[in-house]
Amino acid sequence: MADVTGPTRLLLVNCNTSGTTSERIRSVAAAVAAETTSVDVATPEFGVERVVGFYDSFISAAAGLQMMARWRGQCDGVIMVGFGEHGREGARQLMDVPVVDITEAGMMASCLLGNKVGILATSDLMVGPIRDSIAAMGLASRLLTIHVASGADPSDPSSFMVGAQALLAGGADVILLAGAGMLEIQEHLMRNCGVPVVDGLTTAVKWCESLVQLSLTTSKLQDYRWDPDKAATLV
Amino acid sequence: MADVTGPTRLLLVNCNTSGTTSERIRSVAAAVAAETTSVDVATPEFGVERVVGFYDSFISAAAGLQMMARWRGQCDGVIMVGFGEHGREGARQLMDVPVVDITEAGMMASCLLGNKVGILATSDLMVGPIRDSIAAMGLASRLLTIHVASGADPSDPSSFMVGAQALLAGGADVILLAGAGMLEIQEHLMRNCGVPVVDGLTTAVKWCESLVQLSLTTSKLQDYRWDPDKAATLV
Amino acid sequence: MADVTGPTRLLLVNCNTSGTTSERIRSVAAAVAAETTSVDVATPEFGVERVVGFYDSFISAAAGLQMMARWRGQCDGVIMVGFGEHGREGARQLMDVPVVDITEAGMMASCLLGNKVGILATSDLMVGPIRDSIAAMGLASRLLTIHVASGADPSDPSSFMVGAQALLAGGADVILLAGAGMLEIQEHLMRNCGVPVVDGLTTAVKWCESLVQLSLTTSKLQDYRWDPDKAATLV
Amino acid sequence: MADVTGPTRLLLVNCNTSGTTSERIRSVAAAVAAETTSVDVATPEFGVERVVGFYDSFISAAAGLQMMARWRGQCDGVIMVGFGEHGREGARQLMDVPVVDITEAGMMASCLLGNKVGILATSDLMVGPIRDSIAAMGLASRLLTIHVASGADPSDPSSFMVGAQALLAGGADVILLAGAGMLEIQEHLMRNCGVPVVDGLTTAVKWCESLVQLSLTTSKLQDYRWDPDKAATLV
Amino acid sequence: MADVTGPTRLLLVNCNTSGTTSERIRSVAAAVAAETTSVDVATPEFGVERVVGFYDSFISAAAGLQMMARWRGQCDGVIMVGFGEHGREGARQLMDVPVVDITEAGMMASCLLGNKVGILATSDLMVGPIRDSIAAMGLASRLLTIHVASGADPSDPSSFMVGAQALLAGGADVILLAGAGMLEIQEHLMRNCGVPVVDGLTTAVKWCESLVQLSLTTSKLQDYRWDPDKAATLV
Amino acid sequence: MADVTGPTRLLLVNCNTSGTTSERIRSVAAAVAAETTSVDVATPEFGVERVVGFYDSFISAAAGLQMMARWRGQCDGVIMVGFGEHGREGARQLMDVPVVDITEAGMMASCLLGNKVGILATSDLMVGPIRDSIAAMGLASRLLTIHVASGADPSDPSSFMVGAQALLAGGADVILLAGAGMLEIQEHLMRNCGVPVVDGLTTAVKWCESLVQLSLTTSKLQDYRWDPDKAATLV
Question: Is the ipTM of this complex over 0.90?
Answer without folding.
Answer: yes
